[in-house]
Amino acid sequence: MPQKGTNEQKQAVQEQFGKNAEHYVQSPSHAQGDDLALLKDWIEPQPQWIVLDIATGGGHVARTLAPHVQQVVATDLTRPMLEAASRANQRAGTKNILYVQADAEQLPFLDESFEAVTCRIAAHHFPQPEQFIREVSRVLRPGGRFLFIDNVVPADPELADFINRIEKMRDRSHGRCLSVEQWQQLFAANRLQVLRQRDRKKRFDFPAWVRRTSEGPQQEAAVEQFILEAKEQWQAYLEVKVENQRVLTHQLDEWMAICQKKGND
């Protein structure tokens, strides 16, 4: 049985993304980014493939890959998010996408159903990342590709906790960002071999970033004050730019990896 905290976390995700569905379709940090341009080159999709896009959000990955494969199955925990993605993809003229409301940690698909699986900027919302990766491996065919993109934290536990605290204060649907090392361990434990990877820094306009998920000015001010009172070395890691005691910009780490599922030994 899922723990109470797990259910509460997933309910928070549904509420957050349900009320902001259209915004996530248009969000620059989701709709843009050179990672979308790299998808095809990294995955090397084939016309006969059926691809699973987990936590599709605004449908950006599904829309990018759809012209190159037989079908994309786009899943999301939040029905309004799926509906918004469907509308955006229809406007773009993309027709070979099937939409399924599904939990990333309990996928409703048979074993080895997909030639490729993707998940972009979503896993930090999942309460049980180890279960998510087990499900990815289960539904992926041997030799299949898994493309993973998400925000990550450094290996230092204190700094990681600080960054996750900021994210949780800003967005109650946030679960936990893992470090690259933690993701690599989960991949290795589930027969997912990393073939290629890259790190990049993402810079955000802080007022817009914090406003996107906040429930009011009081919450936004609390997040800003928490950063302003943080250790100098932690502020330096995030490259926080402050002017007149106001946070203007900051940056977060993102990790992108392409894996291949190993066959049974």
From TrEMBL:
Give one Pfam hit by family name: Methyltransf_11
InterPro entries on file: Methyltransf_11, SAM-dependent_MTases_sf
Methyltransferase type domain location: 52-148
Q: Which residues form the signal peptide?
A: none
Q: Show the GO MF annotations.
A: S-adenosylmethionine-dependent methyltransferase activity
Kindly give the CDD domains that the UniProt entry links to this protein. AdoMet_MTases
Q: Which Gene3D superfamilies match?
A: Vaccinia Virus protein VP39 (3.40.50.150)
Which keywords appear in this protein's UniProt record, sorted alphabetically? Methyltransferase, Transferase
Gene Ontology biological process terms, A to Z: methylation
Question: What's the protein here called?
Answer: Methylase
Q: Which organism is it from?
A: Brevibacillus panacihumi W25
